[in-house]
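Hi R.,

Here are the chain sequences for the assembly we discussed:
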Amino acid sequence: MKGYRELTKEELIKERAELNERYEKCKALNLTLDMTRGKPSPVQLDLSNDIYDTLKDGFKTAKNEDTRNYGIAPGIEEIRAIFADILGTDKDNLFMGNSSSLNQMYDAMMRSMVFGEVDSPKPWAQVEGRKWLCPAPGYDRHFRVTETLGFELIAVPMNEDGPDMDVVEGLVKDEKVKGIWCVPCYSNPDGIVYSEEVCERLAKMETAASDFRIYWDNAYVVHHLYEDRNTWGKLPDMLSLCESFGHANRVYEFASSSKITFAGGGISCFATNKDNLTWAKKFLNTQAICTNKVNQLAHSRFLPDKEAVYAHMMKHAAILRPKFEACFNVLEEELGFAKSLWKWTTPNGGYFVSFYAFPGTATKIVSMCKDAGVALTPAGASYPYGKDPADSNIRLAPSFPVVEDIEKAVSILAICAKITAVDKLLEDR
Amino acid sequence: MKGYRELTKEELIKERAELNERYEKCKALNLTLDMTRGKPSPVQLDLSNDIYDTLKDGFKTAKNEDTRNYGIAPGIEEIRAIFADILGTDKDNLFMGNSSSLNQMYDAMMRSMVFGEVDSPKPWAQVEGRKWLCPAPGYDRHFRVTETLGFELIAVPMNEDGPDMDVVEGLVKDEKVKGIWCVPCYSNPDGIVYSEEVCERLAKMETAASDFRIYWDNAYVVHHLYEDRNTWGKLPDMLSLCESFGHANRVYEFASSSKITFAGGGISCFATNKDNLTWAKKFLNTQAICTNKVNQLAHSRFLPDKEAVYAHMMKHAAILRPKFEACFNVLEEELGFAKSLWKWTTPNGGYFVSFYAFPGTATKIVSMCKDAGVALTPAGASYPYGKDPADSNIRLAPSFPVVEDIEKAVSILAICAKITAVDKLLEDR
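And here is the predicted structure of the full complex:
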């Protein structure tokens, strides 16, 4: 099949008519399909159904501490050891949270707002015109935190190996710029793994703000799609990398088990250097006596070390892989003939496929899909303020629906992508 | 036995010598006893060991929602219904947290600091010289939250039916006074239940601050010591009481299951009116996707209604009662002969016995007890800034140790109370 750009006006009109027929047929099916959020599917959640059976062995830690009672504010040692091993850092750098790492990010930023960081000239709430860097497309809930806290969101373009560091290095010369959101491994939504060079430049760069922070959300650190470990995203330990460049306070790293065990019912943690942690603990120890250690113990018994976590994640991968591949295949089949018009990512892990439609069509595509019973994340959702300047990116979340539904949904997406592209091309004829 | 005040100098000196002999004998026992914190004992925690067995029936709510996945930010309906019934309010006024109600208090106050309340002229962080009322003695961790957040802590005397309302009504004429801590049922540490009159005056009083808030920490709402329901502390529903006086936004109520199931491993909630909740949700929905609903489901199955909670609490009471009574008995036996010198509370619930030593001796008593191997909460801990102006109050926490240890520890406390009182009396001879 010829690419659309090579078609005559008449050919395009004919193609448009055929596509419209297909679209109307899809609409007539009265489908209800949802590709909006990165939720694990019930089969994935079933993998962890036995997690609380581990408590039959009692509620004591290896050190004979009773997890059913108050105490051990940073979390039990065994779970910190496992997460530290996964993140490539030391267990003493970790502080466990409850079930949400987003909550830990929000809390960390609220501390900065009210108390400032250990190296802040003043609390961030007192910094008029404070700004935050948002590699885009990125995670909408990240952007919402900084927007809610009154930061101006500065979009940074994403390259294939992470945020455009030339742009970042320029922006951080502004002392109002207090930090950056990063999902370094299988970024949301592009599935990009940051290159070593990007990590190094982030760690090394001089920032005008003395209290600049990287929010290193390692949400998908073990969320690989393939058995072959050569395909696994690998990252340097950002804590020691920052330290090696004299910026030891620069990074807060976050992780959770939401997409390992139960979504919103697992455990979370953050890791940071000693100065930051000592500072944070002043407030964390005021905020609560401790987090849910019974859940930490259950997790540490259910997945007792890094290799156990890897093995468990390969069970997830076996469920997710066909869903991602269904996405890739339908996109290739329907849209592969004209790759200059659109593109999509084929990540090795994470929870999303990022589709870049013909510029100026994403909003229309999402709306047409909705009319055909396919719910997609709103166009622009992955950009600061929900505005994609190119109106091109659509985040696809294939984890929750079954393969058959994904095929239907992505087919409809592809038809709509073609219709809207043809319409755009016809505008110029 | 004569009261000490009636003894001659010589008799006091003789008594002093006898007491000293007893004290030295106690020291020689090399005891290690801990009466510092209100922690449930292992036997109490055992009562809930089977809680996660309830998950054998699956992870779905009555409405067929999957608790293992994201969603249902306010918490599942069944658990909100149970807590609402206990608190005497509507389930739609409730928002569930994770394991710590203290954390919810801290979060609520951080929101006020950064964003203000729905009826605030400006965020509280911008209110120079902001103040908070602290009925004292009270809960040290409450006071620490407001101190950390830069409030001036204003002590309010406690009467036998709650905070001295004449004082409170005077203080709230200052618009810098933004709120008050209350533990209305079995207050920490006195075990006082607020009278209806006190509740009404709190709800009714005019405050200079438009955004004055009562932090109504109903930590011990079902924590009764006796089967006889006539002894149970009863409180009006503070939400509707405040509303009835035209101050619907005035109260945040908090509760948790920490001393029902697992301490720091249970679930928590807050209740407030619609305006406050709508305002809070703007930020709560930015902070996290949801709390741990699997734990909520387990709790709702393990203790499916208010009567089940009451029945469960009577099992706790059966364990706690002998411990409290051991306290009362030893105190009566050792110190009952001279009740003008000291006093102690005999609460019908909660987690503490409050001992008021002869003025000016509490610090010395705690230090002497420490030397004899008995750890007590530091004198003054229950007062703002850790300073008891009378140096009299000592908080006793009898829940964790076994009865035999409580008897030993309280005997030593009583001996030290007598020694220090005799010393004080001798100063005036």
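Chain A touches chain B through 51 residues (CB under 8 Å). Residues 306-335 of chain A form the longest helix (30 residues).

Let me know if anything looks off.

Best,
T.
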